[in-house]
Amino acid sequence: MRIAICDDNSVDLKAMREVFRRTAPEHAVEVYSDGRKLLDAIAGGRVYDLLFLDIIMPGITGMELAREVGRIAPDMPVVFLTDSKAYAVEAFDLKALHYVLKPMTEQALRECLNRLEERQGARRRVHIISSSGIQQMLFADEIQYAQSSAHYYDLHLKDGTVIKVRMTQSEIRDTLGDSFLPVSRGLVVNVEFIRQLGPKSCVLKDGREILLSRGNMEQIHSAYAAYVFSQLSKLDGAFPEVTKR
Q: Is-above-0.70 flag for pTM?
């Protein structure tokens, strides 16, 4: 794996590299003392499997950096490093992989790497057959929404790819799972890509606004709330978890 550590404290950077050397020497580790330089690298196409970000840094904080990275590379996992527990709730809102008190220990690093492995293993695959008869395996979380088109559905992936499949809406939901919500006639949205759900419309993370089905607004809001609650329930007691020295 390629891992980036960003911390303006040279002593902490050196200590982190030493922990990696002892615990996980097989990983390629790159260090940054300036959050802007890390952001520029990612914006320029640099890909990392995991980011370790100090929260308190001059110029751009770790929280601000994580938000910017989330816009550019939303699937890049982040671990926050800090001297204080005060930012744990904000870290949770940013869906951080972990939140660790300095100094990073070998045990804490192993926990971070284990969490990353569990998150990657939890991605659910779905089997689809395109309209041309090609069989494909996709990760469900790659699909933003499915929209009907004549007797087909177009699966819109987050990378811009569109795959046409011959399926009904009920078959779409059975295949993709309960994280896909019918919001209007012939349109099923992955709730993970909903940025905002309003009284009459929802806004996706890419800025697209979708009007909700007029006759099913209450059911849509109830289904969305139930799904969000179920996801938070899975995390209850598991985050924020602070690793102590």
A: no
